[in-house]
Amino acid sequence: MRRLGDLEAEIMDRLWTWKRPATVREVVDDINRQRPIAYTTVMTVANILYNKGWLLRNKQGRAWLYAPVRSREAYTAALMEDALGTSEDRPAALAHFVEQMPDDEVAALRKALRAAGRRTRP
Amino acid sequence: MNAVSALIGYAGVIGFLAPRLLLRSSWPHRAPVLAVAAWQALAMSFVVAVSVAVYEFAEPTGHEHAGVLGLLQTCGLAAVADHAHTTSADLLAVAVPAALTVLLLGVFSREVVRAHQARSRHRAVLDLVGRRSSTLRATIIEHALPAAYCLPGRCPRVVVSQGALQLLSADQLDAVLDHERAHIAGRHHLVLAAAEAFAKIFRGLPLARHVREQTGLLLEMIADDRALRCHSRDVLATAMYEMAAAKTPRGAFAAGGPNALLRLRRLLTPQHQPHPAFSGSIAAVAVTVPLLPLLAACAPSAG
């Protein structure tokens, strides 16, 4: 059983890959190459994505043309900023492996590794 | 009055001197789980001391009959027989400690909720732009900057960027992912939220500042130790270096601090665990310390 979120991701994925506005019919046909899916299901989820502010739409004849509001790269960049950024008032929401650091601290790390006889990349 | 000054003195020792003592000792980095417990015990003890001090101040004759009954009474566990006349002092004695408890719980819940909302927003975007990898049991995002992090809590996610996948060897990547999973499995975000709440309420208190900073560092060490169960020290240490040293856009994420260096040195020089007897006594102290102020309040006063 696929979750609703998975179908949302599938629709966004296609629109981002095609890099052009598309109708629900086009998306349905493309998903149908892999598995059967009802037109109304995709239409409902596209509508949800529109209401969530992920998709824009324009009427083209009798059908809606959907397009992503922002590119995948823009969303990814925003994610990274959220994950790695260090705002003072950020709640303890994300735990990342190692913080980004200035050059002198990196040099100190390298020294510690060398002192222990471990190789580092040049 | 005697008990009040004793309690205030005790709170001073816990709030100002105890952190220095703990920071100077070497065992916390060798036994980070125990150390987190010790910091939390100090924080709890401080809160109890302040509460009991207020109670004692308002009710200096609250329990002339010291002993177990007095202790229970202080804890609010035993019903007081003669509560015929409720004075404003009585009210103050109960209201201030109660308010402090409510404040602590309130700020803690707010921290938890705020962090939960931030993670939900992040996860909503992540689930649309990220690619789930069932082999890695992680979500991959297409970004050149090396990054690995986790979203703890309900519906947890381990996230790794394409940059990190290219930078790290398979072993190193596994070690990093295990480190992140340790945060999720250990529910470290709740421990951190508690430390955060304490730090927000007692802003300016040395204990509060250190509890927050040290808890963060110690939780990283706990996750490192967890990753070391399945990976060599070399693998984790070099992974940490590669991730830290990767070039970032100038000024974009200039944070850091000495934590990475502390963790790296700790990985490179194997530390022997403290003797079980030592660990046992620290654990015993950690359990006792929050209760100490109650005993101080109930000791028969000489004056």
Biggest protein-protein interface?
A-B, 43 and 59 residues
Q: In angstroms, what is the radius of gyration of chain B? A: 24 Å
Going by helix content, strand content and strand pairing, the class of chain B is mainly alpha
Number of helices of chain B: 13
The pLDDT mean of chain A sits at: 84
Number of domains of chain A: 1
Could you state the oligomeric state of the chains shown?
heterodimer
Residue share in helices of chain B?
Answer: 55-70%
Share of β-strand residues of chain A: 5-15%
> What's the total number of strands of chain A?
4
Kindly report the spatial arrangement of strands forming the biggest sheet of chain B. 1-2-4-3
Helix-strand pattern of chain A, N to C?
A: HEHHEEHEH
CATH architecture of chain A: Orthogonal Bundle
Q: Which topology of chain A does CATH recognise? A: Arc Repressor Mutant, subunit A
| Cα separation of the termini of chain B | 9 Å
Please identify the top-level CATH class of chain A: Mainly Alpha
